[in-house]
Amino acid sequence: xxxxxxxxxxxxxxxxxxxxxxxxxxxxxxxxxxxxxxxxxxxxxxxxxxxxxxxxxxxxxxxxxxxxxxxxxxxxxxxxxxxxxxxxxxxxxxxxxxxxxxxxxxxxxxxxxxxxxxxxxxxxxxxxxxxxxxxxxxxxxxxxxxxxxxxxxxxxxxxxxxxxxxxxxxxxxxxxxxxxxxxxxxxxxxxxxxxxxxxxxxxxxxxxxxxxxxxxxxxxxxxxxxxxxxxxxxxxxxxxxxxxxxxxxxxxxxxxxxxxxxxxxxxxxxxxxxxxxxxxxxxxxxxxxxxxxxxxxxxxxxxxxxxxxxxxxxxxxxxxxxxxxxxxxxxxxxxxxxxxxxxxxxxxxxxxxxxxxxxxxxxxxxxxxxxxxxxxxxxxxxxxxxxxxxxxxxxxxxxxxxxxxxxxxxxxxxxxxxxxxxxxxxxxxxxxxxxxxxxxxxxxxxxxxxxxxxxxxxxxxxxxxxxxxxxxxxxxxxxxxxxxxxxxxxxxxxx
Length: 495
Description:
alpha/beta, UDP-N-acetylmuramoyl-L-alanine:D-glutamate ligase, 14% strand, disordered C terminus
C-alpha cells in the first residue's frame, strides 16, 4: 500500500518505535546499504568508478554500507568531517584525469580511482542537519555540484532541510534521491525539486510498519501488482463498459486520436468518439475499432455509455458555444462518470455535482491556476492545497494535478503522490494519452468503485511507460507511450 509522507519528527518517532522492538541500527544500515548499492548499479555499469562522500553520522554509515555490495564497481570512500581539508582531495579525485591503482581496503585513506567517477553517492548529511552551513561546507558542496558528475543522494540531498524543502546555505543537486523508509515532506516541495532530482523510496529496510497516517501518500509499483483485477472468463463487451470521447477540432485532431488509442489500451468493451465535422475524416482514417461520429449540438449519448471523456483537442477558436453548454450540462447532471481535460476545463462552472457521481478533472499547473483565478506560482507553492481548493470548488470532484510528482485526490481524504514518470513526458499530446487511459479504465464498471486507486494506477502506468521508454532510448515520442501503457511494471490481468 502507499507509504505516508512524513516530517522529521515523525521519522524520528518511527525509528524509536523500531529500536524498541529490538531491531538494531546496524541491521537497518546494512539493508539500507543494499538498497543504495542496487540504485547505484542501475546508474552505472560494471567497472565504473563510484565515489562515496561519507559524513560522520548515520547518513555516512548508510553510504559506506553500500560499498560491500558494489564488488563489480571501482569504489572509493572519501570521509568528510572537515570540508576545508577534504575539498582538495575531492577535486583531485574528480578531476578529468587518470588516478593511481584502486584500493578495496576497508580504510578509505588509501582509496584511489583509476578514472573520473561515473557516480557520486552523497552521504554527507541526513535529516538531522538543523543549522545553516558554514562557508567551508558551502564551498565543498558547491564543488561537488560543479563537478557535473551525477549524484545519488542518500535519504535527503545534503544541506536540504527535509521539512521546509529549502537549502541551508547550500545543498547537493542530486540526479536521484533515495529516501529511506518514506518520503520526507520537504522533498515534495517545489523549492526542493532542483536538489532532489528523481525521488525514489527504499521502503523495506527493516523498520517496523510506519505508525503514522498522513495526508499525502506515496504510491509504489507494488501497489498495482494485481491491478486491474482478473477478468471473469464469462465477460463480454457489455461487461467492460462503453467509453464516449468528445474530442478533436481543426488543427488539433491528433489529440482525439491519441486519447482514443490510449483508451483502447485500457480495454473497455466499446469506445465511441465524437469529433468536429471539420476533422472527421483524418480522425476516422486513423482508427479502426473505435467508432467515430460527428458531434452535433443535438447529440444523444449511446444508451450503453458508461463514462464520458471530453476535452482533448477542443482548442480551436471556432468551437461552438453549444458544446460548452453541453459539457457543463454533462458535468452538472449526468449520473455516469465524467472526465474533463484540456480546453474543456475552462468551460466548467463551480458548483455541486450529482450525489455519489464520479467526476475527474486533469489540470496541469497553468489550467489549475485558471480554475482558481490565481497564478501558477501560487499553485506550485502549495500543490496539495491547490488540489483541495479545486475539488471543493467543483463539487468534491477528483483532481489529477499534473506535473512533477502528480497528485491525485479530492477536497478531503488521502492525496496520492505519483512516483513514476520523467521530464521527457513534457511533450504535446502526453496529457491526451493520460486522459484517454483514465477514461478507458473508469468506463469499466468493475473499476469504478475505487476511483482513487483506478486513477492513481492510470497516472502511475502513464509515468512508468515513459520511464521504460527513456531507459530504452532517448528519442521516443508521445505516440510511443500508447503501446507501452500497462506493460511497464505489470500487465493487465484481463484479456
